[in-house]
């Protein structure tokens, strides 16, 4: 950090996880005080949350530590010239999210994308049930539960079970499933 203020480079490569503190916090401090210095975060984490935190902290790049020297060199040049770089998997997910948001679907509308059975499966996920418990409750095979979850994640453009639940507004918008409901389903 001291060297950043001393030398004021055009581009800084920074790990998201530093020994003494968060790389994101340091990036934010540098960004606030050195407006002409651009930061590229290097990480093993490619979660949406980490990318968003890095972007909010002022990072102009978010790349995997596994990046080749050649690609890293190109990224540094691009960022130095005012560009922005994000690893391909993250860029694909960002584009998917933007496209999804463009469709203007709110949580209530998202629920209607799911079949009644998929809604029941997701409701049980929201209640903390495991795949095996969902299968037992709905009187279906565990592989069928997994197939429903794959369909749900695809329809909602979700990466995790928890993200799927939060995209549809959590437990509140999902039908509550009980053991007696399963005989009718």
From TrEMBL:
Protein name: HTH luxR-type domain-containing protein
GO biological process assignments: phosphorelay signal transduction system; regulation of DNA-templated transcription
PANTHER family in the cross-refs: TWO-COMPONENT RESPONSE REGULATOR
The keyword Methyltransferase appears for this protein: no
InterPro entries linked: CheY-like_superfamily (IPR011006), NreC/VraR/RcsB-like_REC (IPR058245), Sig_transdc_resp-reg_C-effctor (IPR016032), Sig_transdc_resp-reg_receiver (IPR001789), Tscrpt_reg_LuxR_C (IPR000792), WalR-like (IPR039420)
Domain HTH luxR-type span(s) in chain numbering: 107-172
Response regulatory domain residues: 1-80
Pfam families noted in UniProt: GerE, Response_reg
Alphabetically ordered keywords of this record: DNA-binding, Phosphoprotein
GO MF entries: DNA binding
Keyword Phosphoprotein in annotation: yes
SMART domains referenced in this protein's UniProt entry, alphabetically: HTH_LUXR (SM00421)
